[in-house]
Amino acid sequence: MAGVDALTMQGRIVHIRPVEPDDEAAIRDLHDRVSSNSRYLRFFSAGAAPQSEVRRLTRPPDGDHLAVVVEDAGTVVCVASYEKINATQADFAVLVDDEHHGQGIGTLVLEHLAAAARRAGIETLIGDVLAVNTRMLKVSADLAPGVRRSIGEDLGTRRVEVPTLPDEAALAAVGARDRTAEHQSLRPLFAPASVAVVGAGRKPGGIGHEVLTALVDGGYRGALYPVNPHADVIAGRPAYPTVGAIGSHVDLAVIAVPAPAVADVVSDCAAAGVSAAVILTDGLGESTDLVRTAHAHGMRLVGPNCIGILNTDPAVNLTATFAPSLPLPGGLAIASQSGAVGIAILEAAGRTGTGVSSFVSLGNKADISGNDLLAYWYDDPATRAVALYLESFGNPRRFAWVARALARRKPVLAVKSGRSSGGRRAGASHTAAAAAPDVAVDTLFNQAGVIRTDTLAELLDTARVLVDQPLPNGVRLGIVGNAGGLNVLAADAAESARLTVPPALGNPVDLGAEASPETLRAALSGLATSGEIDALVVTFVATRTNDAPGTLEAIGMAADAVPDVPIVAVVVGVPDPPAALGARRVPVYPLPEDAVRALGRAAHYAEWRRRPIGDRPELSSVDSQRARAVIREASPGGWQPPAVAEALLDAYGIPTVPARVATDIGEAVRLATELGYPVAVKAADPNVVHKSDIGAVWLNLSGPEAVRRAYIAIATVLGVSTPDVIVQRMAPSGVELVAGLVHDPRFGSLVMAGLGGVQTDLLGDRSFRLLPLTTADAHDMWCSLRSAPLLTGYRGSEPADTGAVEDLLLRLGRLAEEVPEVAELDLNPVLAGPDGAVAVDVKLRLAPIGNEPDPYLRTLKAGTTEGGTA
């Protein structure tokens, strides 16, 4: 376990690290300064902590023991530990400084202790807590809402058991704590009572001067301090040589000084107690030292290499940016990793009338990242939707978790650069080969409910619907207007947007070019209130003979009268058309395809939000400890023999057709006879992916002579005199599927399901999910396949047991969670029939696991930059 920074519930930065031998004095001091009541609750005695306890805590960590401390500004304010009881359980203990009670430190350190215990193979942390110790009982309940408590023998204690792998209720509780802490931590950034602009030049044109001018012109309502050691007055305001010289607390510092001076400025800000800083300077490279300095003094950082931040809240009016154009206030929050793209988004938002609540240029993301902002915007009342431009993920697993929670409440849109059809993974399994680099990103977005668009224009087109219009209740699209050709184009676009155009009331309704405002208003109202449609497109083409201003006003009035149906307008022929119509701000588009595509994305997002998340069910016949033993006894890396793969799958209750390996022709015949005919014989070399293509798979062999012929044929195609072959008894027939896992060090494991056998690569019919896999995910995986009808009785065939297919996928997901050493696992084919699903051919590759990110662990970044561009 490495040392990390984290947030208390008040947004204060603390440091969590393993105990070191030199901590003996600090730990003894902590025990001495807590109250006698705290010592009684911890040790069941009010006396001083025994020296043996201090020695226990400061001994080096090993497989059976770990102790960690929490430091606040360099002072140890908490110590926690576990001691292993058996292979799966450990005792835990926590002591928090009296002055730091109520800050959530006990819960925070237990989260980290549980994560470390989980990596050590411990499944449950156990503690005996006095019944009067309500604080610790609450901590355990916060950590695991479903935690089991039993009454001790003396009736004065409660035994609590905390699972180290959190369930959905526990994750929801962690998420709530995370959002509260982030909101408190980022409040000085978004709503500062005072701002210092460090590097504010005396003359216009410099970045610092222009940011100062933007703050003044934008009507910033707090105290504003120019900082420049070479000036007394800037822009009519007194200037200060350093932030420390201001003499008053500063919430936010905007830093625009040359790169060599940034470290000294950050140190000055930290020493002065500044709460947050935005570093506009580029060319800094590695920013670890800056972040360490900032975090040690409780300061958060945006950037470096960014263009600043905005908050359009009239109570704040924060325009701490040198972007040339600023949007109107509204409900869209924006984060951009690229400054240039951020400027483009702000300019386009202003041009299209898209109102913005806040904007953050992330730059190199040395500290504050998109994950932090998503947590903050969850509870921001001004934000109704979030738009992201991303070039990289610092912790994509955490992004998936945080974004899914936010998307259940507010729409999240994203443009992720780097999309490419090339760059397939290297791998000797179908699963690895299919998981191209962008597949993981698409899978992440799909599961998290993030609306991915290909372009910034599409992002803003969709945002305009999601910010100002209600969500559609379905996919039925109504089309009405005076432009028949535009109506046809809208109806054509509906198909590609996966919307339907029901024929109710003559839909699409063409009113003719000369339709009056009253006629269009009545038709719009009739279709919108018919109950036959879920969203509406209004088309209008202006001519010399119709009343364009009156018609646009009529569209707005009609839309205002039906506020529960999303409506968009397509307006052609009007010079400088308005960006929106009516009080409900019906967005206006120049082309029907743009309008329909935006509505389609809104409809499918709403559909995702209505869909149940599902749960991670209890799975019978899962033996996690046996699985760990299989991994320990296997080769530490590389392709594994069939017996290892079978043993691992068996530990998770995944049915397989037993495979036996023969090293020569005689053994192949002997094994086939023992198994019973008919049998299959196939090449055992795991590096051969497409065995059928080269004649290395022989099926339905009915006797010894057939087995001999098959062995010789396989030897010939492989060019080996005595190849290893797999001999299996033929399995019952069924629909051929493929299922598998591939592990990504950053994204975690992806679970794949698809049409299997020889069609696997030919048709590419497959779906992916990231962990954790829920019941809803497993159901959607096979249902989303184009070949899904084959499983449900296509053209009179007997339906397969789809419940067994889902069960197999859930077990694969659980295996991937608990055994991340599985680098590639390929089950192809999986035969799905009326009596269940069984894996016929299995390939397994193991690889050591390094220091991978934990999606649920509340930590701050360590300061490594991620290459943002300005």
Describe this structure in words.
- The chain is α/β, with parallel strands linked by helices and 870 residues long.
- Among the domains are: 4-165, Aminopeptidase (3-Layer(aba) Sandwich), CATH 3.40.630; 479-610, Rossmann fold (3-Layer(aba) Sandwich), CATH 3.40.50.261; 658-730, Dna Ligase, domain 1.
- Helix content is 35%, strand content 23%.
- The chain is built from 26 helices and 39 strands.
- Strands 1-2-3-4-5-6-8-7 form an eight-stranded mixed β-sheet, with helices on both faces.
- α20 packs antiparallel against α21 (642-651).
Please give the structural blueprint:
Elements: E1 4-7, E2 13-18, H1 24-33, H2 36-43, H3 51-58, E3 65-72, E4 75-84, E5 89-96, H4 105-119, E6 124-130, H5 134-143, E7 148-151, E8 157-163, H6 168-190, E9 194-198, H7 207-217, E10 223-227, E11 233-234, E12 237-238, E13 252-255, H8 259-271, E14 276-279, H9 288-296, E15 300-302, E16 308-311, E17 318-321, E18 329-336, H10 339-352, E19 356-361, H11 370-377, E20 385-390, H12 396-407, E21 412-416, H13 430-434, H14 437-448, E22 451-452, H15 456-468, E23 477-481, H16 484-496, E24 509-510, H17 517-528, E25 535-541, H18 548-560, E26 567-572, E27 580-581, E28 586-589, H19 592-610, H20 624-633, E29 638-639, H21 642-651, E30 660-662, H22 665-675, E31 679-683, E32 697-701, H23 704-718, E33 725-729, E34 735-744, E35 748-755, H24 759-763, E36 766-770, H25 775-783, H26 802-818, E37 822-833, E38 836-839, E39 842-846
Parallel strand pairs: 5-6, 9-10, 9-13, 13-14, 14-15, 18-19, 18-20, 20-21, 21-22, 23-24, 23-25, 25-26, 26-28
Antiparallel strand pairs: 1-2, 2-3, 3-4, 4-5, 6-8, 7-8, 11-12, 16-17, 16-19, 27-28, 29-39, 30-33, 31-32, 31-33, 34-35, 34-37, 35-36, 37-38, 37-39
